[in-house]
């Protein structure tokens, strides 16, 4: 794997002038600049494809907007970081405008789904972690269920119960026994596991604290420990294209749940390397696509619902879901950098599990 070298090379070849950030630690400044540039490119992809963006895409960019606001306000306190703060703030403003406009298209393409999941793209729903923790390896399952009995339909139905957005008029946070059992089922993996975590993460965002939700933190610890284990396994087997989506989703969700060990520098390097540099999206790597490029028509209008997890491949291989998870993962990296001022060295420590020093100064 040549990725770490590629990244160092990138840092070394960056033009010095625009990067002569007034930051005590220039490597941090360079990394923040790289992430911001990637996010600016992804945002112009969102702008150009706004009518095609599904709800998943909107959720990822909504999380990014919250992360950028957090970054903006952390950096605003430091006069030296004003330029970076301004840049994050401008990007967040642009996203706010685009997300407002995207609701119009979502209303056209899938009004039912929009009504059910609208809280997740509303201002104030997503909250940044208030404290950081790390995953606990002793919670990793000894074996996994082979059969995935977890359908996206049932997972969605339980999320709707949680949000209280169904047509039955039920209050948020009230759950059927079916959903309680499904969302706490042990030894799940893949998207089933990430949706179990998403469920408890949304319960936290929604403010559910009673009944099963008294144990929310226990389940969040359990699920993220296993998502970390799966990400490490995915990394060990090379992070091929189909595995990238879940890998980034795990970083997005567990990062927002406050697990800083998902923000590894080498994972950041990998994600940055997956972006389509021209279009700004994430998706199927173009150079490995041996078929002549074919446009797979959008399935909106054919299916009643546009699945959140559905991959919307256009001729350039861009995927809505991939792009959404990538920007929210990258936004988390930026936020963790901003949340740990570099002179404390804590960000360097957390981002660098592979032991390479991040700081140029001791
Ligand atoms: C990890 O989890 C185990 C089992 O629940 C627990 O005994 C241990 O204290 C935890 N370790 C940390 C560092 O939280």
TrEMBL record:
Signal peptide range in chain numbering: 1-22
Lineage: Eukaryota, Metazoa, Chordata, Craniata, Vertebrata
UniProt KW Signal keyword: yes
GO MF annotation list: protein homodimerization activity
Database matches in InterPro entries: DUF4735 (IPR031751)
Record's keyword terms, sorted: Signal
Organism of provenance: Jaculus jaculus (Lesser Egyptian jerboa)
UniProt-listed PANTHER family: UPF0764 PROTEIN C16ORF89
Protein name: Expressed sequence AU021092
Pfam families with a match to the protein in the record: DUF4735
Keyword Ribonucleoprotein part of the UniProt annotation: no
GO cellular component: cytosol; membrane
């Amino acid at each position: 794997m040549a990725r770490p070298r590629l990244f160092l090379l990138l840092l070394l070849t960056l033009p010095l002038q625009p990067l002569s950030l007034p930051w005590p630690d220039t490597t941090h400044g360079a990394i923040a600049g790289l992430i911001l540039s990637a996010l600016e490119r992804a945002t112009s992809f969102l702008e150009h494809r706004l009518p095609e963006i599904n709800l998943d895409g909107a959720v990822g960019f909504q999380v990014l907007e919250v992360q950028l606001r957090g970054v903006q306000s952390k950096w605003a306190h430091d006069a030296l970081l004003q330029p970076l703060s301004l840049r994050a703030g401008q990007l967040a403003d642009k996203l706010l405008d685009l997300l407002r406009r995207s609701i119009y298209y979502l209303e056209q393409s899938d009004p039912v789904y929009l009504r059910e999941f609208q809280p997740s793209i509303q201002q104030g729903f997503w909250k940044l972690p208030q404290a950081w923790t790390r995953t606990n390896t002793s919670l990793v399952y000894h074996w996994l269920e082979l059969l995935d009995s977890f359908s996206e339909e049932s997972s969605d139905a339980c999320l709707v119960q949680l949000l209280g957005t169904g047509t039955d008029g039920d209050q948020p946070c009230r759950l059927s026994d079916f959903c309680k059992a499904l969302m706490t089922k042990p030894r799940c993996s893949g998207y089933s596991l990430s949706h179990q975590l998403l469920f408890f993460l949304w319960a936290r965002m929604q403010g559910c604290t009673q009944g099963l939700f008294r144990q929310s933190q226990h389940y969040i610890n359990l699920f993220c420990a296993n998502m970390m284990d799966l990400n490490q396994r995915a990394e060990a087997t090379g992070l091929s294209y189909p595995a990238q989506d879940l890998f980034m989703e795990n970083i997005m969700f567990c990062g927002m749940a406050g697990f800083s060990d998902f923000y590894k520098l080498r994972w950041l390097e990998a994600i940055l390397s997956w972006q389509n540099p021209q279009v700004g999206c994430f998706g199927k790597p173009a150079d490995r696509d041996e078929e002549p490029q074919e446009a797979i028509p959008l399935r909106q209008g054919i299916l009643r619902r546009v699945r959140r997890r559905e991959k919307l491949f256009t001729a350039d291989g861009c995927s809505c879901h991939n792009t959404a998870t990538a920007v929210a993962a990258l936004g988390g990296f930026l936020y963790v950098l901003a949340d740990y001022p570099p002179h404390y060295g804590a960000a360097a420590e957390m981002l660098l599990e592979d032991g390479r020093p991040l700081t140029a100064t001791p």
